[in-house]
Amino acid sequence: MPSFQTSPGTRDILPPQAGRWRALSDIFADIVQSAGYECIIPPMFEDLGVFLRIGDATDIVTKEMYDFVDKGDRHIALRPEQTAGVCRAFAQHRPVTPWKVWYSGPNFRYEKPQAGRYRQFDQVGVEVLGSDDALLDAEVISLAWQFFARLGLVGVELVVNSLGEADERAAYIEALRAHLESHRGELSEESVATLSRNPLRVLDSKRRQDASVIASAPRISAHLSVASSSHFAAVLAGLDALGVPYRVDEMLVRGLDYYRRTTFEFVSLSLDGSQNAVGGGGRYDGLVEDLGGPATGGVGFAIGVDRTLLACDAEGVFDAGSLALDAFVVDVTDGLAATRLAEALRAAGYSTDRAFDGRSMKSQMKAADRSGAAMAVIVGPDEAASSTCTVRNLATSEQVSVPQSGLVAHVAAALGPRTPRRNPQ
Ligand code: ATP
Ligand code: MG
Predict the structure, then answer these.
(1) Could you report the per-residue pLDDT of 24-55, keeping only the tens digit for each?
(2) How many folded domains does the chain comprise?
């Protein structure tokens, strides 16, 4: 047993899984950049106060924050999500609006670790600041939808709702509280506890005991103003125009307090109930102002990378491909031939590995096979004497002798052209 293991809720993402992580982030970048979103990299820790704006009734703030006092007596927290940091950045730098950004990176929450729930987990997401337009909400939602589709996922459902403006939401919460209080005796112990903290979250309860009280609860739609209702209708019209299928669910409240009007979640039908949300988001029009900036509309989403990949596993799509090398150089002379030939191939754009430590021919050939390379380039004493190399197709075992000076041209003829590496002038 080694002395140290990963800490609970964290994992080493090893190859080839780590490659899959990168490929996922690349696909995400491709989709959102084609819609005009630019990459932002917010810091991984900030003043705790930034994250307190997420809401003092949320689990993220009350239970899950990784916060500490640093050596300069600052109260710091590791970011539990990136929306608050992006809004803080907007308030600090005041970029031209609408500001459309995307991000990819880790977040930290002190949760009970289980499948699909970790203490360090990755998200990809977008935020747009400086617009109220309902068609922007539809654009944002459709980007997440396209992303899941591009991965090959078919069992993902989009659920949407509107929570209204702050005052409408507050009036609804009071009506809901009154209803739940009057049925207090029928609710589960957990929901009674949640009720005093955050009545909205009772609607999230999946406990059978709570079902009938929830079913008879007042609906948010009855508390929406005309403006909020028509904003929501416009979001849905935008989704229809984009051909994005959705289900309206008035029980969708989400865990963050800052949402206004549009709220949505993507649920994987192939994941286990309590960890089946693969992404979520909504409007958060008051958040920039809460962070000391001007009143600014905002909308965005975050997708959980870990859970999305679990959904891919469950559906058997978006496999982890190993790195497919073009060539592997085997050199049983002085090793320098391998140094030169591997470098020539790499410079010409062919991915190439080689053996080290002066291993035997047998051991180097084994490594070449294991590497998954298309071809082995072999240099033994005979080849070295004649400045040639033997190029072996590792799939068919056919081999030919090629002058070392003609190796790159030979590989290019066999594998097709690649983009050469650009060296500094
Ligand atoms: P949940 O209700 O499952 O705790 P959440 O509402 O807290 O999710 P958000 O804050 O909206 O989640 O984050 C967006 C996405 O990030 C989630 O849909 C999920 O896919 C992912 N996510 C959130 N927390 C974790 C975690 N601890 N481990 C892995 N993924 C997570
Ligand atoms: Mg959570």
Answers:
(1) 999 999 999 999 999 999 999 999 999 998 88
(2) 2
